[in-house]
Amino acid sequence: MKKADFRKLFDDKILILDGATGTNLMNAGMPLGVCPEKWILERSQIMFDLQVAYLNAGTDILYAPTFTCNRIKLNEYGLADDLEDMNRRLVELSKEAVKAAGHGLVAGDITMTGEMLYPMGKLKFEELVDVYKEQIKVIDESGCDLLVVETMMSLAETRAAVIAANEVSDLPIIASLTFNEDGRTLYGTDPVTAVNVLQNLGVAAIGVNCSTGPDKMVELVRQMKSIAFIPVFAKPNAGMPELVNDKSVYRMTPEEFAEDMKMIIEAGAGMVGGCCGTRPEHIKALADMASKMPVPEISSEHVRCISSERSSLIIDLDAPFKVVGERINPTGKKKLQAELREGSLELVMNMAEEQVDKGASILDINVGMNGIDERDMMLKVVYQVSQAVNLPLCLDSSSPEVLEAALRIYPGRALVNSVSLEKVKMEEILPLVKKYGAMFILLPLSDKGLPESPQEKEDIINTVLGTAYEMGFTKNDVVVDGLVATVGAQKDAAINCLKTINYCYNNGLATICGLSNISFGLPERMFVNTAFLTMAISRGLTMAIANPSQTMLMNAAFASDMLLFKEESDVRYIENVKPLELASPGAGASGGKAGSDLEGKSQIYIDVLKGNKRSILDDVHAVLDSGADPQSIIDNDLIGAINEVGRLFEKKKYFLPQLISSAETMEMAIGVISPLVLKDKDSSDMPTIVVATVEGDIHDIGKNLVVLMLRNYGFNVIDLGKDVPCDVIIQAAKDNNASIIGLSALMTTTMVKMKDVVEAVKENGLDSKVVIGGAVITESYAEEIGADGYSEDAANCVVVVKNLLGIE
Q1: Of 100, 146, 520, 540, which is most buried, counting CB atoms within 10 Å of its CB?
Q2: From CA 309, how far away is CA 411, in angstroms rounded?
Q3: How far is residue 144's CA from residue 66's CA, in Å, rounded to a whole number?
Q4: Distance CA 208, CA 20 (A)
């Protein structure tokens, strides 16, 4: 099926997807801990009957049961060599069901591998792409009609799957992510960001599945719809599971499910189905209801928006002026050049954090200089900066190779600086921008050099736009550079640039400029830059590449917005304007480590708070060499910092990447300090905690983070791993005199195993207290099975454990 043909399916009806596979197979006898794909192939009639039932209930698109049939997952069962045969047979099984029912399309199903991507994990991006390519190639060749990438918790991994699919298949791709109750994925991605990144990467439909019932999914769909120019879809669970007779049960009836799904369709979903707990009866009720509903319209508007993995920036022409932080650029910065040659990112990270604090909306990343491998350094900087800060990035290089490497791994939608009418830019860089779904800065230059007049500049702009439009770009994918010349050398430089800015604004184009170029060679340059900025904003300038630490410049921008009556600009001015006398001369030039909000905090504290693994060991050794008490460092600096990280995580100012980075930084420091801490003869060791993912569940990302956090607080943690039987957990608790047993589960089909452990603790007369957690776990479920505590995340787990053990 071609992508255009898939899009036409949404013209006349609401498409119906299938329902749950896993929970129905469990009810049919599939035990925990087995490879589900192998079990299906050994009992193919069960799967065939289920899929025919879904098709007869009204399903239009059937998911082939290839969900976890990738090399990484199959390797856990010793089946990696059977990948091709298994995927082919699983697709054929679904095709047979479609043939028997007489209608329907088959979607090859792909999901997460369970491995964390670098730099949080060890799996490199290209390795993951290759894993997905291997599976997708087989699925495509087996005759699927489309591909579905589903139940994704990481936007970066979703991008890897989509890129892999685009490179080995022409099939339409639909993608859905799983969101927590706070409206974000496990890795901190919100619905708008997910849509912005993936629709521009080329997916044919975007949605949300699993994790909640229909009522909790309405707002997620509504947010997706607000920015989507492709169809939006939803596959919610049949409510939340309850424990009945030691089984996980979904009580929502087909009629209740269909009634709640009306809200999903009214919110804009043009394709609907069911996830955990839904049966053919649910899909039948859904299909009957949907047939009477009006088909949601699909917007054709492309919103001007760039994204990091965890936030998006919508760029409206009349919105407040925005600064693209210019500091991460070695041109004219000898200290930064020296550090980059040494392979150090210390100053880069300090500059990134400082620019965020000073109000930048985007960070420009440029590492072009001699004496280094620009491609390798660009990748290192993008990895580190995108993990540490939430702002979108502007990737700045004249090398197509460098830009492609950065665009490939960047877990968001970047702004590329830049594309001009020069041959290499048009023929090599512009196609890369399109391939990776980025936006670009249009620089009005040609192979002839600088334009000689505003008219020539406009002609270049329109020529580049014409080519871009033919490639599928819209005006909202472009930001035009006004091309600021130096007024000291060209007296009409400012006037000409202002004409270009005004021309673009009147034609609905966003604009940008490198602000400091205007004053080059002049004394007291800040006055020239500031005066020019106010003029440019009044002509419609959208953003500028500048140093956000320059107080006069930022104050002028805030004041200009207010005088132009831009939305909420008066509040923005009052909250952000600073007296000039409080600004130190040359502010922002040093890239110093500590911000004003960290006054009085030690460098070790700051390292942990910022996740600074680059220099934590040097800083710890320096403090120890000065004679500091090791225990005091742990108590005051490390524990204090990780507590603050936990608070920031709770407030949704930090997300999983920052939490992991800070926890790993603390772990490095603890490794050095712990051997130096002498315990009193009468003092006892910290309590022992046994942690495991329960039997049948092979997900361990959350569990691993819990282990890391608990160890950082000094607890003796025994990590039993994933898919751990009850008797093994109990024996480990006995052997190690565990004070706490921590249990994790990510699937509704495995959460019931937690009750087995709780009961076994009582039967064996253990004093161990049981704490449970995981994506599908709730506090009410913990109370229901008699667990002693419930933890909503890794940071909260430390608090729960301390409370249970009476530790201050």
Answers
A1: 146
A2: 5
A3: 11
A4: 14
DSSP line for 338-358: HHHHTT--HHHHHHHHHHHHT
Q: Which two tokens stand for residue 324?
A: 């693209």
Q: What's the start-to-end Cα distance of the chain, in Å?
A: 62
In the Cβ-directed half-sphere of 781, how many Cα atoms lie within 13 Å?
A: 28
Confidence tier at 32 by pLDDT (50, 70, 90): confident
559 close to 537: Cβ distance less than 8 angstroms: no
807/801 Cα distance (integer angstroms): 8
φ and ψ at residue 655, rounded to 5 degrees: -130, -175
Mean pLDDT for the stretch of residues 62-83: 97
pLDDT value at residue 588: 40
Query: Tokens 């000039």 appear where?
Result: 580
- Cα four-point dihedral sign 763, 764, 767, 773: negative
- Could you give phi then psi for residue 524, rounded to 5 degrees? 45, 55
CA distances from 460 to 417, 421, 426, 441, 442 (A): 17, 7, 12, 13, 9
- Widest CA span in the chain: 89
* pLDDT, tens digit (0-9, with 9 covering 90-100), for 719-767: 999 889 999 999 999 999 999 999 998 877 788 899 999 999 999 999 9
What DSSP state is assigned to residue 778? -
Question: What is the bridge-based pairing of β-strands 242-244 and 247-249?
Answer: antiparallel
Q: At what angle do helices 569-576 and 551-563 cross, to 10 degrees?
A: 160
Supply the pLDDT for residue 678.
55
Q: Rounded to whole angstroms, how far apart are CA atoms 35 and 47?
A: 14
Residue 591: predicted pLDDT: 40
Q: What is the pTM of this model?
A: 0.89
Q: How far apart are CA 369 and CA 372, in angstroms?
A: 7
The length of the chain, given as a count of residues: 808
The residues, ordered by sequence, that sit 6+ positions from 323 with a Cβ below 8 Å of its Cβ are 359, 360, 361, 362, 543, 544, 546, 548, 554, 557
Residue 17: HSE in the Cβ half-sphere, 13 Å Cα cutoff = 33
| Whole-number percent of the chain with pLDDT over 90 | 80
Contact (Cβ atoms closer than 8 angstroms) between residue 753 and residue 32: yes
Identify which of 685, 659, 776 has the alpha carbon closest to the alpha carbon of residue 738.
685
| 268/224 Cα distance (integer angstroms) | 9
In this structure, which amino acid lies at residue 727? Answer: D
Identify the three-state secondary structure at position 416: strand
- Residue 587, pLDDT score: 41
Rounded Cα distance between 233 and 63, Å, is 14
pLDDT at res. 113 = 94
Please give the average per-residue pLDDT across 5-26, as a whole number.
96
Tokens 């010349």 identify what position? 485
| pLDDT tens sequence across 651-670 | 888 888 888 889 889 989 98
Q: Phi/psi of residue 473, each to 5°?
A: -75, 160
Q: Which two tokens stand for residue 652?
A: 């949704």
SS (H, E, C) 473-517: CCHHHEEEECCCCCCCCCCCHHHHHHHHHHHHHHCCCEEECEHHH
pLDDT for 167 beyond 90: yes
Q: Is the peptide bond before 585 cis (omega within 30 degrees of 0)?
A: no
Rounded Cα distance between 432 and 166, Å, is 13
- Residue 99 pLDDT > 70: yes
Residues ≥6 apart with Cβ < 8 Å to 614: 344, 345, 346, 349
Q: How far, in Å, CA of 626 to CA of 303, rounded? A: 55
